[in-house]
Amino acid sequence: MRKRARLIYNPTSGREALAHDLVEILGIFEKAGYETSAYATTPAPNSAADEARRCAKDGFELIVAAGGDGTINQVVNGIAGLKRRPKMAIIPAGTTNDYARALRVPRNDPVAAAKVVLKNQTVKMDIGQAGEQYFINIAAGGLLTELTYDVPSQLKSIFGYAAYLAKGAELLPRVKPVEMDLKYDGGHFTGKASMFFLALTNSVGGFEQLVPDASLDDGKFTMIIVKTGNLAKILHLMTLVLNGGKHINDPSIIYAKTHKVVAKSDADRLMINIDGEYGGDAPMTFRNLKQHIEMFADTDRIPEAAITDTDPEVQDAERQFVSAVDQLPDTDDENDKTV
């Protein structure tokens, strides 16, 4: 029986260029050996997630998410909780397209993006879980949450990443640190910070040097806590980011790898951002689901350090260890390391 693929596309993403290439894109997946059909998302809540879940349960071998990072997030949320998860491919048609950048999928040519499947190269990607939600790129609290909420969707479509930069310049003078309590592997931070975030890839808001050593499949988040709220210091940190990722050694930064984070704030409201959208308030627990979804990617162009090559038996032992750790109760042990 021939394999089946479902293209789930957002007809309003980016500049709506996808519809023009739809027939050619479907032909590419047919050439790759998939009987391919398409579904246009609707304004209904969770339209993409519901269709992805339906297709997965119906036995489709491949789901193609075509749209911005939000569409990809929805599709992942539709299948991540299932025991049997089909492979995924992506066709970027959004603003920053961070996920496509990390997978080295062409971001300005939907047809070229579809042709990645013809290389038959995949990566078993980590994804994050925050409560009942799943995320593909970042979870954050603090400054980043305000930045992404305050950029109108129309500006994102017209001006792209420049809209984020403009809003960031406007917001920086108003940045105030908030009380945070963050537990992570081997560490416990308590105090004021202007933001924290957990990254799954090396592309965050278009910056590839923000998490320069990120791995796509090692089962760990790259965590950054920005302890300063001083405007001049934050601007200095941004220059270090652009200057080869040198910010990771700055004393105002906590930079760590962790498979789990428990975030709360007893004094201030701490809003949580999940892949660019409001995801609720702390307290919240974040877990990394190692190699959870297999994605088509151009692995020839992905840095070797970003993909692990671990023996399957070692991977299984690691999964058992992580599972055992997750069963342990969260405690407020006085011996927690304070950084």
Report on the architecture of this protein.
The protein has 339 residues and is of the alpha+beta class. The protein folds into 2 domains: 3-120, Probable inorganic polyphosphate/atp-NAD kinase, domain 1 (Rossmann fold, 3-Layer(aba) Sandwich), CATH 3.40.50; 138-290, Tumour Suppressor Smad4 (Sandwich). The protein contains 10 helices and 16 strands. The strands form 3 sheets. It has a 6-stranded antiparallel β-sheet, with helices on one face. The protein has a 6-stranded antiparallel β-sheet with strand order 12-11-10-7-14-15, covered by helices on one side. The protein has a 4-stranded parallel β-sheet with strand order 2-1-3-4, sandwiched between helices. A hairpin with a 2-residue loop joins β5 and β6. α6 crosses α8 (161-171) and α7 (153-159) packs across α8. The model is unreliable at 154-167 and 331-339 (pLDDT under 50). InterPro entries: ATP-NAD_kinase_N, Diacylglycerol/lipid_kinase, Diacylglycerol_kinase_cat_dom, Lipid_Phosphate_FormReg, NAD/diacylglycerol_kinase_sf, YegS/DAGK_C. Belongs to the diacylglycerol/lipid kinase family. It comes from Lactiplantibacillus fabifermentans DSM 21115.
